[in-house]
Every structure is written in structure tokens, then in C-alpha cells.
Amino acid sequence: MSVIETAKDIYDLVKKGATIELQERLMKLREEALALQEENLSFRTKLSELEAKLQLRDSLTFDGALYWTQNADKTKEGPFCQKCRDGKGLLVRLQNGRDRTSTDWVCIECHTTYGRSYPQSLSDDNDLFQ
Questions:
Q1: One-letter-per-residue 3-state SS of the chain
Q2: Is the pLDDT at 91 greater than 50, yes or no?
């Protein structure tokens, strides 16, 4: 039974003066209204998550080796790891690798290094072509 049908039943019961049935229908109406509120909250949460994903997707650019995001003021943020983004959907900011290795960038998640040439993995189990 829908909320509207329950409300109509309540109205009819009020006209008849049926108080016990009226109380039962009011409880049912409250339950249905609460279920609708919970469902609405769930939909709003999912919508918010999807909007955030869409905004991120729209702000991502790929330069052939690395991902970057573009802010509203058109400034670039990043770079972000291609392997993590393409493989796991993660947006992992690369760290300056010149302090630790001879490469330009290092991913702390998958340990892929990015230099001036094609990215290379630090370990065999993180091979890009698996």
C-alpha cells in the first residue's frame, strides 16, 4: 500500500470515527514515510557520489604517460599514476622521485616510476603489462 492510499484510508476512518483502526493506519503511514525518507537519503547519497565521480572524470586529462586534473581556475594538479588510475580506478598523486631514484616521479601505491621516457616498474610483480 502506498503512502497516498494509506492517507486516504486514514481520512475515511476519521470520518467514521474508528479510532483503533485509525491508530493502526497512522502507524503504517509513519512506517511508510520513514521508509521513503531512508530511500530518499540513499538516492541522494548515491547521486552525490556519482556527481563527484563525474566531476573528477571531467577534470582529468591524460598527457600520454600521466594523468592531471584541471582546477576551476585552469591550473593543473598532479601528476597522478596512470597504472593506478587505469587498473584500480585510484587517483594516486606521484611523488618527486629525484630524491630517492634517478627518475622524475614515483607512485607510492604501486611503486611504478615515471621518468622522461616510458614508465617502468620498480619490481617484477608490478609489471605494467600483466
A1: CCHHHHHHHHHHHHHHCCHHHHHHHHHHHHHHHHHHHHHHHHHHHHHHHHHHHHHHHHHEEECCCCEEEECCCCCEEEEECHHHHHHHCCCCECEECCCCCCCCEECCCCCEEECCCCCEECCHHHCCCC
A2: yes
